[in-house]
Design goal:
Immunoglobulin-like; about 150 residues; elongated; mainly beta
């Protein structure tokens, strides 16, 4: 409402509409299961000169999406494979799809964008190994997404 000193029109109603844009964090798949795999010491050595997308151990992928229209910031330290004790797991390595290691730095994910996390299983000891990636956004209204990782090394 706009008020004025005009006696013929002391007030004028001005309709206002707005749209609120939000981001929406989504991760899929949320479970990564690896086949029975030799421990890292028994995996074959890779020849030199291969592209960084070639890995020694088996890999699985999960994709982090922003299904909303507004930007969201992914908390960098949430981009790690954490074991049951809360420590970074030595058995799983995280990579970007282009082959570089996934650094635990904050990442802005624009509305409609996504990125792939490649998880490599190269266990340092035999046995069943599990970890999780708890992808979180800086926006506290975003529900964190958990990716469960499991594999058996022999």
């Amino acid at each position: 409402m706009v008020r004025s000193n005009d006696p013929a029109r002391p007030q004028f109603n001005l309709p206002i509409t707005g749209t609120i844009a939000t981001g929406q964090l989504h991760v899929t798949p949320t479970t990564l299961t690896f086949p029975q795999t030799p421990i890292a010491a028994n995996l074959p050595q890779l020849p030199p000169g291969l592209p960084p997308t070639i890995h020694r151990g088996p890999t699985r992928m999960t994709t982090v999406y922003n299904l909303g229209a507004a930007d969201i910031t992914i908390v960098g330290p949430s981009l790690r494979a954490i074991d049951a004790a809360g420590a970074v797991s030595p058995h799983f390595a995280l990579w970007l799809a282009e082959g570089s290691a996934l650094a635990p730095n904050n990442r802005v994910l624009r509305g409609g964008e996504s990125f792939v996390i490649v998880v490599e299983f190269a266990a340092t000891a035999p046995g069943d190994h599990s970890a999780r990636i708890e992808v979180r956004a800086t926006d506290p209204t975003q529900i964190p997404a958990t990716v469960t990782i499991e594999g058996r090394a022999v």
